[in-house]
Amino acid sequence: MAQTEGHPDTICRLHLGLAEGLTEGLGGLTTERLTVKPARRAGCRLTVRRAAAEPRISV
User: Is the pTM of this model over 0.85?
Assistant: First the structure.
């Protein structure tokens, strides 16, 4: 924990990037936001939603 205390923004960006990569890889999901809480207490919230369905095109 001592290594991360001076750089919470870096850790938050890492967590958000992991979430974005995961939702993109799974498909059908979008990472909407990461609500950051104090590092010592944890409890950050990640908001993920279903991606809008692609419109079907008939030719």
Answer: no
Residue position matching structure tokens 């979008």: 30
Both tokens of 15, joined, read 């967590």
* Closest C-alpha to 16, from 47, 41, 38: 47
Q: How far is CA 22 from CA 3, 10, 19, 57, in A?
A: 25, 18, 5, 28
4-59 pLDDT tens trace: 567 778 888 999 999 999 999 999 999 999 998 887 777 889 999 998 776 667 76
Domain boundaries, the chain: 2-50
What's the Cα-to-Cα distance from 59 to each of 18, 41, 53, 54, 56, rounded to whole Å? 38, 55, 19, 15, 10
